[in-house]
Amino acid sequence: MNGFLSINRFVAVLVKEFLQMRRDRMTFAMMIALPIVQLLLFGYAINSDPRHMPTLIEMNDTGPVSRAMVSALSNSTYFDIQRPIAGASAAEKAFRHGDATFVVTIPPNFERDVIRGDRPKILIEADASDPTATGGAVAALSGIVSSAIGQALPGAVADLAAGPDPFGVIVHRHYNPAGITTYNIVPGLLAIILSMTMIMVTAIAIVRERERGTLETLIATPVRPAEVMAGKILPYVLVGFVQTAVFFIVARLLFNVPFDGGLGGFIIGLNLFIVVNLALGFLFSTVARNQMQAMQMSFFFIMPSILLSGFLFPFAGMPGWAQTLGTAIPATHFIRIIRKVMLKGATLPDLWPDMVALTAIMAVVTAVALFRYRQTLD
Amino acid sequence: MTSAGPEGAGAPPVIDVRNLTKRFGDKLVVDGFDMSVPRGAIYGFLGPNGSGKTTTIRMMCGLLTPDGGTGKCLGYDIVRQASEIKARVGYMTQRFSLYEDLSIRENLDFMARMYRMPKRRQRVTLALEDLGLADRAKQLAGTLSGGWKQRLALAACMIHDPELLLLDEPTAGVDPKARRDFWREIRSLADNGVTVLVSTHYMDEAVQCDHIAYIAYGRKLIDGASREIPSIVGLSTFEISGPDLRALEEALEDAPGVEQVARFGSVLHASGTDKAQLAAAVKALDGQDGVHVSERSTGLEEAFIHLMTGASDNYAADPSRKVPS
User: Fold this and answer.
1) What sections of the protein cross the membrane (chain B) (predicted)?
2) Are the C-beta atoms of B175 and B209 separated by less than 8 Å?
3) Fold of the domain spanning B234-310
4) CB within 8 Å: B91 and A376
5) Of B279, B271, B267, the residue nearest B304 (C-alpha)
6) What ipTM score was computed for the predicted complex, to two decimals?
7) Are residues A225 and A278 part of one domain?
8) Share of chain A above pLDDT 70, in %
9) Which of A372, A325, A314 has its CA nearest to residue A78?
10) B49 and B314 Cβ atoms separated by less than 8 Å
11) Which of A185, B234, B243, B280 has the greatest number of CB atoms lying within 10 Å of its CB?
């Protein structure tokens, strides 16, 4: 009698599930919206053959051949030539700041040397801390050179074009000369790990109080929103420190990732990043109506943190709107900080733009979270 | 302001609200509510489920913002000075709302910190001893029985020695013995000058109160000193005794003019608002085998039964109908 499966009971469970699904609009909307949003967002944004990489140029010669080379680089769409610089230290600084992916140096007397047949070399320095970002451009270089030659050497010196290339390029890969992907991924992972745990733990913080009914007792006391927020966030800052320590030990032992930069700047950046994520989680917590929704919102946020932050795919390779979106994501800035510090030996002065961005995001998120947090049950 | 509590004490009332109104969506939950609670009173707040008791209490302690009306609680404005009120009021929620995953001591300690109590450790230890839980201080609050949870909740909302206690159905789901102990505690607090506003739908609790406000469909219908309630309700009561109370009860229930029959030990109390009709109905039984009928004054019990049976749950019904008389 009881051994048989009952269609009626199965239908009862089925109907109940549909009813509950219909009542939980937010979850339902998420399930529908998720594939659409993610497809549109990531389908268009992600590009593993990035073009328009920010390029600075040191023009020590302005002859027609040099200009032909510059325009060939530009026409290839891989290189986005932004401004001229002077001197190796300026190039070094631009790399550490993250202003440039490439620095092109046309040597002095380039034009003369080409005509003499000395076959001079153009120096192309690449920020190889992200091998994916530079790979495509570097591979395209030989084609670019031939097109420049074709353009620049008509008439009198046309015969040069027929022989071996009248000039060449040397590529210097900085920071990660061997192009080890691990060096790029591992530092970024810290940002992702911290984002995930920090946002999730605080996202359920207020909702859990609401679900358990303890929120009523809490707000019946004279406690202020900022006190609740600070009190709920601080313990997890410590958790974030522990995670970071564990991360560095493992990164060092297993992956042998270097740490070349200044510790002070890194620690400030780390604190900012942890707090901004916790504040974000707290904000989700004030919006979500139950723990399930809080988790969904965290997940919804972590996806772009992985895909639009430059963690997996080169930031410079994304279209403008996606870069704008990525700039609003805290992980983007922390990934820059940690890569600069670990791979490029950056110190505090090199990290300012990222620090400012993180601080700005934190201010906005905190303000909205405190505004959203209600001292009443209305 | 001088229209203080029903007893008209000289001191300003502890709670003085006028025309409080609250709506959730298009549902009017509290409608033009007035109340004045004198210092040191135990004020009973009665009404069926969904009548707006919890909402009213929450507005009084600053947990909800009223949509209309004004009010003062302990002399502070309930809208603009909510944090002053929160610091001086002990509010015990209907549902147990302390941290189940904290121990008894940790919960009390948390609350004591919230109110920035001086000599916190001492205060908590004292509260634990008063509670009789000193030896179980490390037990998790979630593992306590209903009665103990309720006592812990009371201790927690008393930890800052509030002048006013707002208790929202504090004894729901608690056994009678624990309820009696609880009320003894409330009484002794009131004797020490604490004002208590307690919502309930237990009749035996209502009789413990000095004053009663009865609310249904978000409107206050009756407000007065407990001893005046029977006359306000306007009920007449006869006491009937006889050998077969069951048969008598059945006979009375169908009789015209008899609005309620309640058994008190070995006698029945039959009550109704139309005294002549009621008298006729009970007199008809008088003189049967061993049946005795006598008129008696209507007690608080009969008045409450009358009030409570007059109104069912207030959740779904249309407020324009079915307002109990």
Assistant:
1) none
2) no
3) Alpha-Beta Plaits (3.30.70)
4) no
5) B271
6) 0.80
7) yes
8) 96
9) A314
10) yes
11) A185
The values of phi and psi at residue B17, to 5°, are -120, 145
pLDDT recorded at residue B125: 94
Rounded Cα–Cα distance for residues B221 and B229 (Å): 11
Which structure tokens are listed for A50? 């990035």
* Closest chain A CA to residue B61: A220
Q: Is B66 at the interface with chain A, CB within 8 A?
A: no
Alpha-carbon span A378 to A375, nearest angstrom: 9
Q: Do A217 and B156 touch (CB under 8 A)?
A: yes
- Closest chain A residue to B25 measured between Cα atoms? A378
Task: Give per-residue pLDDT as tens, B247-301.
Answer: 888 888 888 888 888 888 889 999 988 888 888 888 888 877 788 888 888 888 8
Mutation for testing the B interface, residue in A211, A215, A221, A232 having most B CBs under 10 Å: A221
In chain A, beta strands by DSSP E:
53-59, 79-84, 102-106, 121-127, 168-174
Q: Quick check: B64 and A223 CB within 8 A?
A: no
Does residue A277 lie within any of the structural domains? yes
**Which amino acid would we find at residue A341?**
V
The answer as to CATH 3.40.50.300 being correct for domain B15-227 is yes
The answer to whether B95 faces chain A, any CB pair under 8 Å, is yes
Nearest CA in chain B to A228: B114
Cβ-Cβ contacts under 8 Å, B97 against chain A? 212-217
Chain B hits for A216, CB-CB cut-off 8 Å, are: 63, 93, 97
Q: Which domain holds residue A306?
A: 181-372
Would you call A377 and B58 a contact, using CB atoms and an 8 Å cutoff? Answer: yes
- Whether residues A200 and A331 share a domain: the answer is yes
Of A214, A224, A376, the CB nearest to B97: A214
Phi, psi values for residue B102, rounded to 5°: -110, 155
Q: How does pLDDT run along chain B (325 residues), one tens digit per residue?
A: 334 344 444 678 999 999 999 998 888 899 999 999 999 999 999 888 888 899 999 999 889 999 999 999 999 999 999 999 999 999 999 889 999 999 999 999 999 999 999 999 999 999 999 888 889 999 999 999 888 999 999 999 999 999 999 999 988 878 888 888 889 989 999 999 999 999 987 777 888 899 999 888 888 888 989 888 888 888 889 999 888 888 888 888 888 888 888 888 889 999 988 888 888 888 888 877 788 888 888 888 888 878 777 655 555 444 443 334 3
